[in-house]
Amino acid sequence: MFFDRPDSGELAVLVHLEFPQHTDPDDPREFEELVLSAGGDPVDFISGQRSTPHARYFVGTGKLEELKQCVQLHDAELVIFNHNLSPSQERNLEQELKCRVLDRTGLILDIFAQRARTHEGKLQVELAQLRHMSTRLIRGWTHLERQKGGIGLRGPGETQLETDRRLLRGRIKAIEKRLEKVRKQRDQGRRSRRRADVPTVSLVGYTNAGKSTLFNHITQAGVYAQDQLFATLDPTMRRIQLPSIGSAVLADTVGFISHLPHRLVEAFRATLEEAASSDLLLHVIDAPAEERARNIEQVEEVLKEIGAADLPQLRVYNKIDLLDGFAPRVDRDDQGKPLAVWLSAQTGTGVELLFDAITELLGEERVLETLYLEPSQSRLRARLYEHNAVTDEHYTSDGSIELAVSIQKSDLLRILSQEHLSFDALNWRSHSAG
Which of 116, 335, 372, 414 is such that its CA lies 20 to 30 A from the CA of 25? Predict the structure, then answer.
C-alpha cells in the first residue's frame, strides 16, 4: 500500500514562508533537494513572509490566490509546503487548490518509504506513516462522517471513518509488536557484544554528509551510497579490525535532518538505539557545506533526543577533496586527545588517520598488555577467558603462561578485586595500562 511509486516525477509547486520569530528556519535549498529526492518535479517556488501562520490556510488569502493561479498555470498535481501543516489546514488547502497538498513531514515520510530496503526499515516507515495518517483520516471520508438512517441503510453501528480508524489502530499495534521483537533482538545482540567486550562505533551525521561512502570505504560492504538526501535508511552493521583493539562493530545509521519529525524519531527508535548504546560516535560532517555549523547543531539536537548527547564523540570532517589545497589532519585537545579528523571518504585520503584516532579513543581505558601467570594462577586465567579478554596464549619453557590481554580497565580491576589480587602485584610485560 505504501511503497507503490509513480513512474515519473509529479509536477509540484513548492511553498516556503519566512516567519520573523523563527530563529531556526528551514533551508529553502534543502527543501528543493528533498522534493527532488522524493521524485518530484518542481515547476514553481512560491515564497513569502508572514508574522504568524494563517489559522485556516497557513498562507494568507492573497498568497492562496497566487497559489491557485500557479497550480492552474502549470497543471500541477501537488503543492508541497516546507512547513508542518495541521490536518485541517491540509484539508482546507486541498479544497481550495483542487490538488493534493503535502507538508514537510509527509514529504520526508515519502522519501523514507522509497528508501526502505529491509523488512525492519519498511515496518518502521509504515508505522510512522500510519501515525501521521491517523490524524488526517477524516480528509478522505468527509462524505461518510454521518451514519445514514432509513430502511436498508442502518449500518453496523459505526461510520466508515470509525471503521478505518479501528483498522489503523489494529495495524499500528501489530507493527509496534513486531518492532518490539526487533528491539529485543538488537538488545540481545548488544548485550552479547558487551559480554564479548566488542566495542561498537556508530556513524551519525546530517543527511548526505557521506556516512555510507565512509562506511563502504572502511568495510568494503557495498552499502547503497548516493549523493542524495536519506540515501541510507536501514541500519547496517559490519565487524571491523582495529590495530591493538581487535574486533569492533561499525554501524551506519539513518541521516538526521533539521526538524526531523518527532514521529520519525519514535518509529526509528530501534535503529537509533544502536547509536545511543555505542562506545564511540563518529559524527560525520560535510566540510565544504555552507550550512555546516547549523547541520552540526541539528545533529546534536537529535543526539540529545535519543539520549546519546554525552557519549564519546569524534568529529569526522568529510569531503576535503572539495576544498582547495586541504590536507588530511587530526585536531587534538590540550591533553593530546583526538577531537576531529579531516578526510575524504570518496578518495580514501586520511582514512588511516581516522583508524588511528578511533584506536586511541577506544584504547584509552583498555589494558593491552602481556601477562605472565604461574600454573597456580589458572583461576585468574579462566576468569580472563570468561570475559573474552585473552587474544593470544603461549606456554613458556619454565611452565608459566604468557597471555596477551585486551580488556576494559574497569572490567579487569573488578575481576582482580573479586580474586583478591592487585594490578601491580601481577607480572606484566609493562605497566603502561590505558
Answer: 116
